[in-house]
Amino acid sequence: MDDLPKLPGNDFANRLRQKHHIPQCFKYLNGYPIPMKPICGLGGEQLNEDSIYYCTDETDSVLYDPILTYGRLRKLPVKPYRPHFVLYDQKTLKFNAFFRQAVPESPKETFRIRYVNILYFLEDDTMTVLEPVIENCGYPQGRLVRRGRILKSCLGEAYSWKDLNIGIDLEIHGYVFHITDCDPFTKEFLLSNGIELNEMEFPPPDPAMNERSISERQSFKHHKMYPVPQDKLRKYLEYQGKVLHFDCLLDEPDQPGGERMTYKLFYFLEDDTVSIKELKENQEGRDYFPMLLRKQKLPKNWKDVPVTYPSICMELSDQEVSEYYSPRDLLVGGTIFVFGRKFLLLDCDRFTRCYYERMLKIIQPDAVQLGSPERRTPRKELPTYLGLGTPEDSIASHHSLVPKSPRKDVVTYLVNMNKFLRYGCVLDNAHPEDSIRRFVLSLSLADGTITIMESTIRNSGIRGGRFLSPKKVWKPDCNPDAPEYYTAKDFFIGAIIIVYSHRFRIVSTDLYVYRYMQAHPEMFASNAIETVRNYLLGEGHLKDDLRQAIEDDCQLYGPPPAPEPNDDKGVGEVDKRLQDFKLNESKPECKPLPPVAIIPADTHPCPSPIIPDEEIKKTYHSHEHMDLALQGQIEGEDVVKVGKSVRFEDGC
């Protein structure tokens, strides 16, 4: 078939082949090109002669593969090859040794013992000798032998790790080093390689260092003991953001303006600083300061400074302060001093209690309980009344920049609107020209104002008219800042009323005042009501009340017995009073009367009382002040009625 022409249908080549590269037939060996037989065909395919289909011998073993029956043999994995320098990289044998150094021309010592470390590097079989640094020893230290291969003899043979052991002498560059011990890795390495180690030896002491340590111990007590410096970076990383919280109290009652105030104390564990924060409730009426103490170290005794410390300096440094406050000094219930100010620790948070229990093995006491402070209420001191306007107006201008009118009792005003109590008054003084003057005092029940009107007397030179406009009148000797005003209970027959240094004596009143007293007996004293009643009885204005009382007595007890002639013992008190009043010409007969509704005194239908006499009603309840009649109890005085007014002819 190889002789067939390469025509379509006659070629049996693989049309699915994607790789068409020709296999390599040459290679270089020791720098020379050598031809070789290709081991594969085009594109890496198997050659025809390597296939079992081209094998002509039927007995050939190629036709039978035992792997198909028994499987492949399992071979142990071959460890990868690692060079010597990779296998022993960074592996070092360490031996402890010493050597003796002579000290010539010295009266104190003849030799010294110097301790060294011999390092053997397994990666390249090199050695070095290092001496640990001793402070203030007086001679150079460090690396004594540079790293390299050290010769063992003059024949060029170098030291190996097999030549090193405990208790042998090792000569290096003229110095003899005696090996006394090795580290655990060196022991394990040598024993694993079949080398038996000798017993460990103790190095001899250095007489010079012993004498030096003894002298240092003897002179150490004469030096100041300085604290061991702390690792600030380690402490900062460990305690960063961890703060101890305490509630504290500042109580300074003996200081001017001092009072009980609470603060918040923070102790920062990262740098042992303290800060004290102001609370919001302490800033009422004070300037705003967020921090009472900024973050800083807090000394225990800030006044304990050296004598040489300059007084011009304001802040203390660590050299002047001997001791600062630490967490062990902050306990609940204890007292700390912050630059002379005394603070009481009241309580702490949960983190602070856990820190003291775990780290310091200290259990914080319970919180200190304090009584709740009294709520501070500012005292409002009213200014002194200056006499301008009324005291109520002055107080209103004190409470507000824009004065407001004083509040009025609207309910009382509406109930007592157009209700007045009228009294007749005379001046109570030693001037004879004032004895004929008559006044009418009106008390308004709606707002408590007093109005005084003077009656006109003909041919007396007194003009009359308004004597006092409606206004409230103070009582004498009262406090101007809290004045007391005249009220209805202060007016009765015979009372002295002082109005702006004028003394008025009440001598008369009208029937409406008595009716008002009957309707409100709780507002007046019993003697005041008695004086008004006696006055009105003497004037004959209570006829209806007396008639009603007689009828009630007749209805309850029957007719009174007839009095004997010329016998005054049987005359009752009521009959005596009625002798001057002609109620009826004939003697009243007690006949059965229809039931009459008895109105008690305290429920009298005031403010519209029943006035018996029409003329008295016109006289006492006229709204015109010129027509108001005055009733006086003045002996030898004749009252003459002229028109609608009543005037006094004779002077008092």
Automatic annotation (TrEMBL):
The keyword Membrane does not apply. Its main location: cytoplasm. The keyword Acetylation does not apply. Residues 89-194, 240-360, 417-521 form the DM10 domain. Gene3D superfamilies: 2.30.29.170. This is DM10 domain-containing protein. Signal peptide: none annotated. Pfam families: DM10_dom (PF06565). Keywords: Cell projection, Cytoplasm, Cytoskeleton, Repeat. PROSITE patterns: DM10. It comes from the Eukaryota. It comes from Aedes albopictus. It is found in: Cytoplasm, Cytoskeleton, Cilium axoneme.
